[in-house]
Amino acid sequence: MNAKELENIIEFLGKRFKTHPWHGIDLGDDFPNVVNSFVEIVPSDKIKYEVDKESGYLIIDRPQKYSSYPPALYGFIPKTYCGDKSAAYCMEKTGRTGIVGDEDPIDIMVLTERQVDHGDIIAQSIPVGGFRMIDGGEADDKIIAVLKDDQAYGGIKDISELPDAIVDRLMHFFVTYKDLPGKPTKVEITHTYGAEEAKEIIKVTAEDYADKYGDAKENLMASLAEALKA
User: Fold this and answer.
1) Architecture of domain 26-214
2) What is the distance between the alpha carbons of residues 113 and 131, in angstroms, rounded to a whole number?
3) The predicted structure's pLDDT at residue 220
4) What are phi and psi of 152, to 5 degrees?
5) Model confidence over 127-176: pLDDT tens digits?
6) Measured at the alpha carbon of residue 48, what is the angle toward residues 44 and 51, in degrees to the nearest 5?
């Protein structure tokens, strides 16, 4: 079986089965200027959902115990991974040592003036900045983006154009959403950065993903070819 026939099989499977949101959704044609974001939770959610890494389905992580709800659409950028290169970038920018990647896709929060009723969706998003966050010695950056073509936020190009109150609200959420009474977390935001650095960090996490998992299509083609030989 030749490569074209294998590609046809992959296309057939992709149209009939739900893809894994972390590994199966493409970065986008204009990456990293516009990225596909997979939204797990929305501001109205009283339950924290997250993608199960094995199955790709949303699972209940925990009920939101207190009043810390996400102020915007919250999820991750598919085919990214916070690994060695992400950790090295964080250490270069902070001058610290001993930082490691958190081994998750990079998180993204997407601003829109419209109410979105549920997660488990893909949103085309324009990165405008981010927070350099360190969580217990792990690089855990948070990308801030706006929904593409959003009537209120779609024209914003950099986090510096957002009202201070919005940025403060986003930052407050990230430094407090894991807090429990008597159990303070070790979450720290060291820097707020703009759109260009956010795009650079996204590219670094995409490189970390490629180092960790390789190209999904090439891996599948190789696996199919090997199976057909057996």
Assistant:
1) Alpha-Beta Complex (3.90)
2) 21
3) 63
4) -95, -40
5) 999 999 999 899 999 999 999 999 999 999 999 999 999 999 999 999 88
6) 120
Q: Which residue has the tokens 């920018």?
A: 93
Q: How confident is the model at residue 99 (pLDDT cuts 50, 70, 90)?
A: very high
Beta-carbon contacts of residue 49 (< 8 Å; ≥ 6 apart)? 40, 41, 58, 59, 60, 61, 119, 120
CA distance 18 to 224: 18
Is-contact 72 112, C-beta < 8 A?
yes
CB neighbour burial string for 94-116, b if at least 16 within 10 angstroms, e if fewer: eeeeebbbbebbbbbbbbbeeeb
What pLDDT, on a 0 to 100 scale, did the predictor assign at position 13? 63
* Residue 210: partners with Cβ closer than 8 Å, 6 or more residues away: none
Q: Which two three-digit tokens encode residue 72?
A: 């915007």
**What are the structural domain ranges in the chain?**
26-214
The Cβ-side half-sphere exposure at 172, using a 13 Å CA radius, reads: 10
